Amino acid sequence: MRFGAVVATLLLAAGAVLAALGTSLWWWVAAVPIALLGLLGAYDLLQRRHSVLRNYPVIGHARFLLESIRPELQQYFIERNFDGRPFDRDTRSIVYERAKGTDAEEPYGTERDVYRPGHEFLVPSMAPRPVPDEAPRVRIGGADCTKPYDMALLNVSAMSFGSLSAQAILALNKGAAGGGFAHDTGEGGLSEYHLRHGGDIVWEIGTGYFGCRTDDGDFDPEEFADKAAHDSVKCVSLKLSQGAKPGIGGVLPGAKVNAEIARVRDVPQGKTVVSPPYHRVFSTPRELIRFIARMRELSGGKPAGFKLCVGSRSQFLAVCKAMIEEGTTPDFIIVDGAEGGTGAAPLEFADHVGTPLTEGLVTVHNALVGVGLRDRVRIGASGKIATGSDLVKRMVQGADYGNAARAMMFAVGCIQAQRCHTNTCPTGVTTQDPRRARALDVGDKSARVQRLQESTVASALQIMASMGVTDPAQLRPHMLRRRIDPYTVRSYDELYEWLSPGQLRAEPPASWAADWSAADPDRFTV
């Protein structure tokens, strides 16, 4: 029995007893709390679920009360500006300020320990350049693509309707439409909320094939082609894995599958929906590349790609070999880092499985350069991008553009309450409760999304200009430095091995030779 129900039952019992005795009002005021606490203490002594309450009746409830508000106490009263997790106070503040269009400057200098091992910094130039008047865009679309798309430097990362409320999706898409950047649907299907305001859409398909699935859960090419033809859909993406929980599927409880979500996802209403950890449409690297080509064809020539959290380097090299042998490539690859977000994931996966974004980007970029295909494939970076410096660092590490999810959630009102999986989001962002979701005003929050994207890209361009760079293509690994210990600093040019075009096919370096040899385009080696 829940604690609240126990208290209510005891209160009613005490009231009935006292009413039967015919006591006066003042006697009630004194007696009801005493009787209630006495009955509660008796219940605590008799119950068998909580040892703390059996040993410390009544007062033991203080422990559970304090535990329930621990995240709020931590966030508001204990953590410093720079040590909160997943996003610290400084980062959240700069996102909120830019979204609102207020000042985002800080006085008196940095609070961070710049001599701490792991601290990274970008290298300014003695000859800075003027900030470009217009932000550059990234052309997505290789030799096999007939409808290329010019991607913004920062876009809305994958977040599904169902995980996010309808109001949140509407605000994100309206902001994307106003600012001319892309909005990834996540794997939860293409809903009317993604299409209402006409923002550019990257339609993501996951292992459940939601929105384009047959009754038995397989991929439905006809439904996919019909929806991919929509003018707002600019790219189509196949999700292989997610940074925060790579290698596992998902479960949407039947209680959450209302009529609207069932319609969007092509699933039965009220029944639990399981997304398997694996795809039905491919089982080998070669089949993966062929399916990406099929997605491009079914979409009418729009850019097609895939998203993954990098694991085995030999497996990704096997995909590269499949590209070479099949004579076709994805138009883009989105690299999701292990530090990426999720609505819910097992703690062990979030903390201990998957490659962080830095190593993931370096691996994918170098592999494509090494096989001579980097010019045909654009790389997107996804995982804790919230500021202009985050974006510049990821482009130094090999990305062409970035995607942000949680920063965009902050823009629409998220306060990092970390209740995304409970359906009790206090700001209406990650809930399907209409009463909670109505708090999110689409008009106001969409303007904040647009301002955040514009100011973050402007910050990135300003940082690049201070480095003597006017275009992301001019960024180089030596422009980013990391402190190794209190006395040693190394550039990314020194920390990582950077391959030359075609090097893997000509003569693999010793550090890559074993993985290149093990890579098989017809199987995913373990």
TrEMBL record:
Gene3D superfamilies: Aldolase class I (3.20.20.70)
Taxonomic superkingdom: Bacteria
Organism: Actinacidiphila paucisporea
Any one Pfam family match given in the protein's UniProt record, by short name: Glu_synthase
The name this protein goes by in its record: Glutamate synthase domain-containing protein 2
UniProt family annotation: Belongs to the glutamate synthase family.
One annotated GO molecular function: glutamate synthase activity
GO biological process entries: glutamate biosynthetic process
InterPro entries: Aldolase_TIM, GltB, Glu_synthdom, YerD
SUPFAM superfamilies reported for this sequence: FMN-linked oxidoreductases
Domain Glutamate synthase, first and last residues per copy: 154-469
